[in-house]
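Sequence in, structure out. First:
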Amino acid sequence: MSIELSESFSQMVREKGVDKDHLAGIIEEIFGILVKKKYGEEAKYNVVFNTDKGEIEIFLTREIVEQVVDPNLEIAFEEVERMGNEDELEVGDEYVEKLKLISFGRRLITFAKQSLNQRLRELEKEIIYKEYNDLLGEIVIGDVYQLNRGHILVNHNKNELLLPREEQIPSEKAKKGETIRAIVKEVRKGKTRPEIVISRSDPKFLQKLFEIEVPEIYDGIIDIKGIARRPGERAKIAVFSQDKRIDAVGACVGMKGVRVTAIVRELNNENIDVVNYSEDPKIYIQRALAPGKIKRIDVDLKKKSAVVYADSDQAASIVGRNGVNIHLAMELTGYQIDFIREEKTVEEIEDDIELIEFREELGQEMYELLINNMFDTALEVLRAGKEKLLKIEELNEEQVDRIIEILKEGFEEE
């Protein structure tokens, strides 16, 4: 048992960094319980553990008496004489006896082993819990060692970390043995061992990646004011420079985009929009909705809402695929944003389109009618307006409205 104990002790000290004195105290406590179980609660004893050799010495102290009443606390003088230890000892003195482990019997020794193993497991759980609790929000690097029903188990410093399905980047597929990075999101005290949950989809993971890639963020020169993410698809991050000489967006993107590209690659090609933060809600919302171009914004500060007006041809950029761009902008700014399309006036249209491009939509008869009335381009027709078009005898009001609608839609698509 001493050999087993020595090995366990050395392993706990070496691998887990447990304080020697603390561990020795646990061992002495366990064997103290052993003594009490055999000799009673009032027994006087001393347990000495040699931390280097892993040896345990147990000493029982009893009073020397003429007539023994309680053998757990007393020892007869005759017995002391028989053991040849009567020199300089007399009745009333204390007799210290070194006990052998074997004298406790198999049952108590087994109890001691089980108790010790249980305490060591509890101690290891506490150490692991504290270690990862201190790492909350920090990035850890481990190896994928098991894929279990969509969940990923990661080995980190011989500890098992859990990357649940919901904390993964949806478009990623992990492979056994590959290295993976994630942040420690949650540490729970499980029944057998701590449950350490890590995440690659949490916005804090993106924040930590920027801290690693952008020294100005790590040094506190640039602040991250907000992050909104759709993991694996798109993210927006608002940054602000404490030093007016440093461009926050430029520093985060890096020369030729090298910094943000490294982060995009880590996140499986997740698009990242880096925007300058502003305390002015109108400016902040406008930047958050990039790359869409806004004509004007009405903001209600009390309701934390905004109405955004833009040309119809900007709808796709502002809203984004499946509404992701506008939803991320709302998440980033904290404002409810409603988008209203505005049709371009004829005066705002710059690039003209040959009328022949609309021949199919207008129909051959309508197309030839406009050409014969000296209209060669779509813009010429729109600038003529409804009133002039109605002067063409072959056209009625319904047909004119239809012509104008077709041509305007063509410019919006452009």
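Second:
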Amino acid sequence: MAKIGGVVLAGGKSLRFGMDKGLYPFRGTPLVKYALDILQPLCDDVLISTNDPESYKSFGVKTVTDIFTDCGPLGGIHSGLTHTNSDLIALIPCDTPFVPPALYTYLQDHCGNHQAIIPTHSKYVEPMCALYAKNCLGHIEQAISEKRYKILEALKTADVSFINVEDQAFFGPEIFHNINYKENL
């Protein structure tokens, strides 16, 4: 796999979780570390998009904060694309420890010249575990300026490829499972 940039989204408010999810020790390891371990072998540079950079310094990667605040994950995607040195980023939320690295290899193999490559399965679309080209920044900035913060809504005018991954060997029903409640662990 050619090297790309990586962005870990760890800027959420974690309201349902009750604490910063990225720092929560899931099975003895902070959730953000799972995301870093998935992306670092695939990417030239990896950064963490967080609104609490001090808390993530110990992970040894660059941290960035949202340029546009209160936009949800779209603000983190925007910030990651703005601060990366790469033309393409692999995006992962800090609370999805079961995403296999092979997902990103598969998406990049099908990237072409699209501005976003988003996996799908069954009736689900997974824009938080996807590839984004730097040249989709204009679409994201336009959406933010219009207060359209849903990722798929922001990408309506972009060249997006939706790739079904259900028939791939790496796929399993748990790979996109995100951890929202400590009680369910």
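Remark: The longest strand covers residues 43-49.
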